[in-house]
């Protein structure tokens, strides 16, 4: 992948490894990393550089102007959030397996629950 987002037409999901490749662009603000879990989950663990937009308040949220990667605990809520934003014209992808898979494959220092 080499630090670039795939064509949205190729699918709605990115693997944690693909997201890890994009961390420099996320840190530069070129891509938004959105955690769609709830506040209590956010307080327990998160991916550095992410912004919290709970799925329960997604209807109130304005999609970012930059492309966005959305994650949750296991990847189901983030798929719904990604679909919702795509229907509103945003470039968005869901991280498959959520933060649980991120902890297992990318950063074991992120606690699991």
Automatic annotation (TrEMBL):
SUPFAM superfamilies: Rhodanese/Cell cycle control phosphatase (SSF52821). It comes from the Bacteria. It holds the Pfam family Rhodanese. InterPro entries: GlpE_sulfurtransferase, Rhodanese-like_dom, Rhodanese-like_dom_sf. Residues 27-111 form the Rhodanese domain. PANTHER family: FAD-DEPENDENT OXIDOREDUCTASE, SULFURTRANSFERASE YTWF-RELATED. This is Rhodanese-like domain-containing protein. It comes from Luteolibacter arcticus.
């Amino acid at each position: 992948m080499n630090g670039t987002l795939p064509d949205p037409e190729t699918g709605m999901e990115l693997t944690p490894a693909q997201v890890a490749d994009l961390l420099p662009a996320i840190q530069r603000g070129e891509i938004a990393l959105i955690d769609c879990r709830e506040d209590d989950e956010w307080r327990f663990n998160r991916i550095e550089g992410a912004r919290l937009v709970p799925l329960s308040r997604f209807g109130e949220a304005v999609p970012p102007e930059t492309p966005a990667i959305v994650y949750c605990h296991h990847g189901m809520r983030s798929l719904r959030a990604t679909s919702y934003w795509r229907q509103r014209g945003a470039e968005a992808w869901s991280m498959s397996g959520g933060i649980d898979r991120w902890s297992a494959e990318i950063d074991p220092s992120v606690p699991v629950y």
